[in-house]
Write a structure and sequence with these properties.
With about 475 residues, this protein is α/β, with parallel strands linked by helices. The chain has three domains: about 150 residues, FAD/NAD(P)-binding domain, CATH 3.50.50; about 110 residues, FAD/NAD(P)-binding domain; about 110 residues, Enolase-like, domain 1 (2-Layer Sandwich), CATH 3.30.390.30. The protein contains 16 helices and 22 strands. The strands form five sheets. Strands 1, 2, 3, 4, 5, 6, 16 and 17 form an eight-stranded mixed beta sheet that branches. A five-stranded antiparallel beta sheet has the order 18-19-22-21-20, with helices on both faces. Helix 1 runs parallel beside helix 10 and helix 3 packs across helix 8. The longest helix has 19 residues. It starts with 5 loop residues before the first strand and ends in a 27-residue tail after the last helix.
């Protein structure tokens, strides 16, 4: 073994989590090797969050403009957008990123790495030794075993964000964030879109009001939303893919997009050589992201929460632990956003029933935003928007919040901080919010919580109603 092959840490996977771990360790002078078989930046930077949100931005802007008073609705320019998307993802060429890491003294190995025992990684015949191993291999799209799907051909999120032409029509299978975002994007660019969801509502793990609102949003954009039905077969007829559904009907599209979830990449990593037996969910880790002696795991491969921001957070936790600094992960306040127009954002527990199932004495409030605060009227004509909170009435703490409203991804962070820091509800109620702003919804919702006996029930839609845009705020 040469000194060149000895490292303080060897990181498997150069997605956002792996890169944050690397940068945190590098700031402390650690000697690091980074292994990546695909592209630096991983799924998020190349085929996920970054290209998808780049593609969504023009359709979001068009939607907002169409609802704002005194603005002409802008047109969409696909060639210009696709060129900018290619620029954003560096045309899937990471040589510049590799060079910048190497200039900093990082050893970058563009090969698949496999653990070969404690402190040992093999990569195409090369052996690297590290005091710490960080597994950050991410996740991959689940392709459901629908008869005929493979033969007919399909897209995952990768092909959908790499598309060079807008398809005339599309069938999206899956009603989670990826499927919903892609359905709205394609519909607004002129595709005839059908979305097939096996559950009885979209975003079925969230509050029912969220799924109902999302269905209305998509239907307003012309998406044919099919709920409570399964795709049972796919066949190709000329340029069309015909999808047979469990209710006996058929839908068709030039492309079929599968958006039915993701699975952690744990296969053939040599985890057994260090005593790790991953489950279907992923690699189990403790609050320090430790998976075994000398091994840490971060990001989607842990199955804790498949969000880039969680991967980055875990990257910091793992790196700090490797460096000997106290750090423990806390997942009580993880924001989650669907970047539709309007946006959907949530954090913590979104239903009173879920809170009670966890032993929390809970109360929930749902506000219609245009009848509760002024900002929706200044933002657009014929405003809409819904906001909900879930409170622990015994401890007087916020445990969840959600919104279907403009810019929800930005102002949900007030609830993120409140939940994470356990800011008492009386303090939140007494906090002065900017007028007019969507953040005023927090005060309006919290003041509508029941008083008196902890856990007292109330009408979820009982709240101060505005009889005119500014009537309740004078």
């Amino acid at each position: 073994m040469t000194a060149a092959d000895r490292f303080d840490a060897v990181i498997l996977g150069a997605g956002p989590g792996g890169e944050v771990a690397l940068n945190t360790l590098a700031k402390e002078g650690a000697r690091i090797a980074l292994l990546e078989q695909e592209l630096i930046g991983g799924e998020c930077s190349n085929w996920g969050c970054i290209p998808s949100k780049t593609l969504l931005r023009p359709t979001e802007l068009q939607g907002k403009s169409s609802r704002a008073a005194g603005v002409d609705t802008p047109g969409l320019d696909w060639p210009r957008l696709s060129a900018y998307r290619d620029y954003i993802v560096s045309n899937h060429d990471d040589t510049g990123k590799v060079a910048r890491y190497e200039e900093r003294g990082i050893t970058v190995v563009k090969e698949r790495g496999r653990i070969a025992g404690p402190g040992r990684i093999e990569a195409n015949g090369r052996v690297l030794n590290g005091d710490a191993i960080v597994v950050a291999t991410g996740a991959e799209a689940i392709v459901p075993p629908i008869p005929g799907l493979a033969e007919a051909g399909y897209w995952t999120n990768r092909e959908a964000t790499e598309l060079t032409e807008i398809p005339e029509s599309a069938v999206v299978v899956g009603g989670g964030a990826v499927g919903i975002e892609l359905a709205q994007f394609l519909a607004r660019f002129g595709s005839r879109v059908t979305l097939v969801q096996g559950a009885e509502r979209l975003a079925d793990r969230e509050a029912a009001e969220i799924g109902d609102a999302l269905a209305r949003i998509l239907e307003d954009d012309g998406v044919d939303v099919r709920l409570g039905v399964q795709a049972e077969g796919v066949r190709r007829e000329d340029a069309e893919r015909i999808v047979s559904l469990s209710d006996g009907s058929q839908v068709s599209g030039r492309v079929v997009i599968v958006a039915t979830g993701r699975r952690p990449r744990t296969q053939d990593l040599g985890l057994e050589t260090v005593g790790i037996e991953p489950s279907r969910r992923g690699i189990e880790v403790d609050e320090r992201c430790r998976a075994a002696e000398g091994v840490w795991a971060i990001g989607d491969v842990t199955g804790i929460a498949a969000f880039t921001h969680v991967a980055k957070y875990q990257g910091r936790i793992a790196a700090m632990d490797i460096l000997g600094h106290p750090a423990r992960a806390d997942y009580r306040a993880v924001p989650r956003v669907t970047f539709t127009d309007p946006e959907v954002a949530a954090v913590g527990i979104t239903t009173e029933e879920e809170a009670r199932s966890q032993g929390i004495e809970a109360a929930a409030v749902v506000l219609d935003l245009p009848t509760s605060i002024a900002r929706p009227y200044t933002f657009q004509e014929n405003p809409t928007g819904v906001f909900g909170v879930v409170a622990d009435t015994e401890r007087e703490l916020l445990v969840g919040a959600w919104a279907v409203a403009p810019l929800a991804s930005e102002w949900i962070h007030q609830a993120v901080l409140a939940i994470r820091a356990e800011i008492p509800i009386p303090v939140l109620k007494d906090t002065i919010a900017q007028f007019p702003s969507f953040s005023e919804a927090f005060g309006a919702a919290l003041r509508a919580l029941p008083n008196g006996t902890p856990g007292a029930m109330m009408d979820h839609h009982a709240h101060p109603m505005m009889t005119a845009p500014l009537g309740a705020v004078r």
